[in-house]
């Protein structure tokens, strides 16, 4: 028997796939290997038939450092055996020559945890890093606990070898508290005829607890220039660059405990401090505040200073203490100022003495505790003035009495002149203050991108009407289909045949078959004759059934059931199915067309109104894809409460930060926009406050509080956006526009369209007989109301201009509009950009935003100059 040659390619392919899959079944392993460069310092960690799932955690080496160089992948196929390799390359850094032993350790791979065996290298020679000296040096080796001392990280390297720093300084300062490293300072010197580069980084630190410390070493990756790489010549020669990790010594530090016992009023401050006191004013009246300010400033362990001890004042004062203000110099932890205010509100007149105030700090230079003393301060409180000639002094013994002056007319009679009575000035309510924040966070709905999107949504009800119309037409076509009774009867014939198959002698089953067979042939009377059936098998079947029913001892022929099934199948092919296309015939569509024509003839004005409404809807764009934001979405837990608490306590910066975070998470939260405007206004940042107040107004113009603060902020900021000017003020048009936001007017437009669609649906249902009552008058009223509602909503929405777009942004301070997103090219075209201008954001690029304005002009400006009215800022 010969082997079929045509199967050879198939078997070869199967053999190749089997051999290629064999390595997957081989054991995986991870091991160290020489890199093959000839330098024992270059080694590789090889993952065979697996790959690392995380970066390997290498063991600590006492006399050497492993520097990661890179990763590569390889695939080897030898004798149909496939091996995949993942190779991590490392270089050993050593200062004294010799072999290096790397102990065994475990690595995590995609095949689970594997063990790496112990590896010993060849004789490794010191690299170029051996010529570099890196040291960590504290300026003082003995310090007090809490004493701030300088710390220097220095590098001494040959000038010709140093290229650059490859990464930032890596240092774990614990247990010290330290500042960031300052920028490096470099000097050069000549040593043994070679130029040396000395680079120093400085910082300051302190130890919180006493004891002997051994500081962690500083590590940093640097790039060295080792000359020209071999193999090139002329301009084709390349520099040979090598990256090495510098590691400093572990400096030792002796931290002394502070002397005991410490004074009672010691506040934990170690360093050079001064304490100042100020009382403003020193003479006041009852009910008016007096502020007592203590200021601690200097250099020391500020992170450990909690605050100043409490002060004692007379019980005749109501004392309020705002949060303390701590200010540290830029990028410095140990130079700062602590200011604590106490607001005293006197309730009784008199002369009071503010008691002396004393604290202690520790001066590390002298090694002693320093006393900071504030002497007593005397303040005088007078009674608050009330009615003319009297003073409200708060106690019966201090009441001052005066003689009552005669009334004006009596004085005039005594002097002989006619009295001159001037009406008093009309008291006006106060103005110029912002209102309080709103407690409950709420979300506004997002408006549509354009009126066209609104029209698309408004067309959905009309689509539903059209679908209903077609469904009713199909229903009518099926109902009036002349062949429907025959199809229904024919569908019952198989069940009758099945019943006869179970019992051929059942007269009831045979009569059932006759009834449905007659109806399937369109024979309506109860007892059709054989001649009424078409010639052929149906006549024979009917005759056999008649004999079986009415002739004694005459059963059905044995093949009758088979012939009945065949006849049924043949008749099923002759009777066509439902003609669904007949739904579009006049007989089925005409009932509603007739009703609609009648309605148009009875009231032709409604047709014109509908056409106008359709044309208007055709020009409107569609709602944006994000849809409507739920109005009851919850804000981040407790965010608004914390912001309210910070605002009430006078910490407006903290309140601003919290409300900005809320807006970043929920940009359509109009209450957060409103509250952020208040926090900015409290800091006299009126221009930005007006922008956020504008966003709150656009999202919820119905709020009286929002309108109040917007008017005040715009008057302080000096601008009013032209796009929303028609919606501002107390005019009739403005009040109408303020009934809903742009998204609210979008919903009204869709609601009006739904009413018009319902007005069309009612005559449709009446024409098809689903409604019995006369519905033309209600449908006409609904149609007119829907058209008016949609038209009024379009009018209200138009008052917001570009502010009704979900990508609208407001320029909150005067700037420049650039043609390209850069300030470097001074030759480009630019134009002034006024505060209060509203545009649509289209593109962003590295902190720049492209705006499109109502006149078609486009340009670029900084994102920091904008406040988005509906969405979150990308970086504000």
TrEMBL record:
Residues 1-27 form the signal peptide. The chain crosses the membrane at residues 743-765, 777-795. Residues 385-415, 608-634 are annotated as: Disordered. It comes from the Bacteria. It holds the Pfam family BatD. Residues 611-622 have a biased composition (Basic and acidic residues). Residues 389-403 have a biased composition (Polar residues). Keywords: Membrane, Signal, Transmembrane, Transmembrane helix. PANTHER family: BATD, PROTEIN BATD-RELATED. This is Tetratricopeptide repeat protein. It comes from Cephaloticoccus capnophilus. The lineage of its organism: Bacteria, Pseudomonadati, Verrucomicrobiota, Opitutia, Opitutales.
